[in-house]
Structure prediction request, 575 residues.
Amino acid sequence: MFLKVFTLLGSLGMFLYGMSLMSGGLQKMAGNRMRAFMARMTSNAFKCILTGIVVTAMVQSSTATTLMIVSFVNAGLLALGNAIAVIMGANIGTTVTAWIFALSFGGGSWSIATIAIPLMFVAFVFMSIKKYYNLGEFLMGFALLFLGLSTLKETSTVLLDNEGVRTFLASLSGHGIWSVFLFMIAGGVITLMLQSSATATAITMVLVAQGYIPFTMATAMVLGSNLGTTITSNIAAAVANISAKRTARAHFLFNLFGVILALAFFRPFLSLVGITVEALGFPNPVTIEFASADEATRASLVASLPYSVAVLHTVFNVITTLILVWFIPLLVKMVTLMVPSRGEESETHRLKYISAGNIATGDLALNSAKLEVVEFGDICRKDLGYIREAVNAPTQADFEKADEKLVKYEGITDNIEREIATYLKEVSKNELSQGGMARVREFYRIIGEMESLGDSGETVGKIVARVWDHGGKFTEDMLEKLNHMLDLIDVAYEAMHHNLATPLVELQDITNAERAEEAINKYRDRLREAHLSSIEKASYPYETGSFYMDLVNCFEKMGDFIINISQSVIAARSA
Prediction:
């Protein structure tokens, strides 16, 4: 008996690991194409819903889809309203998993689980070939998932197939609406404990297919699992930023409203599910009384119950989407009220895209890393404004205020570099494609250059501080030339941002960055020649001129850091 219980737990572990492996393989195979698809297919509500369906069906993980959605919202690439529409589609897409599970139960002597073990050999062969490793990982996960599900179905009798358990479950089913709430809670708790609504759906299929619970209570468990999965995402978003919290709240409200509607019209909802099941050629699980049915009808009903659960899952999410898609603006207002802004400054300098939780699969996680790198670049560019303030400060008190910001930003860039590097290290522990490894290497180079840009700001502050300490002052001509050079650096920053933010598949070259770098170098050379001439004419004190040229050289060095970033981006594209 003890061994059988652990066999049951082992089958559950095999199921969960298989799902993780299958999802990971799919995500890594999708790579940049899936991210590009999401970026392009979000121009209206219909496309957003379709995007959610397709991406979630591909990666077999609504959680992975949700994290990508959060990244796009934070980057300003996707409005919150469109993000909610993608979540609606993701809820429909996740029902594909339920249909795959239903197929694994089979309607007779054959099911998908039958080919699981032979498929492991095929998966092993593919995993032995580096080029097809991700495909092999997907197939291995597929095989383990359905072998685990088959074993779970067979060993569930260890705990469930006894008179005491049957009597207990029967007693829970005899209290009308209260029974519905009890089984809803059970579905939510199972989802929360196992961190997987798909697993809760599989367990529901086992229970209803083997006659432990009636279909009505299976409906309640599915409704509960839909709520449970939103609790998981809200817990994950508790330590995340405002956009992540709002997206998680929208997911919760969407499913909550759907469950409330289903409960308010529970009997009509069940009838609709029954009619849909009949339309697909299966016995109606709502109207047929199992006890009074003949043997052939019973056998047909039992075989079709997993499909009925899949229909139920699909109907619930499709109807909820069709109703609530018209109320997306209202949902946006509600989540904005639930999670109000705390002020721009508090959100500006914290990691936005990799704080919502790590994605287990490396190549997909690099999407979040890229968005964080783009944000890092924008923070460095904001530091340029404080450099300008420090250089042009009319009084020493004004300079000291600007210098405090430069010192603060130097610490910020150090922290961001360290946290992104830590994240990349964790991502690298997972199996990455060759392109994914190249991207990680380039990200390391890029964040190193950006950290150097942060150091440059503090260096500028030190140079200007020495000017004030020595009682010197830049001439109007010096300030005009320094400001022009800062303008050229800002143009270089603009080119850098464009090259970082543009998807690699769309980035043709970095001539914009090269032109900006060339302009900085040429202007630096002009200023050097003019400085030597001014020194000869004693147009300004030598010491002041020395500090002036230190700034010119520091600005030129910033241009080098910026062009290095664009060169790293294009190198990643060539990998």
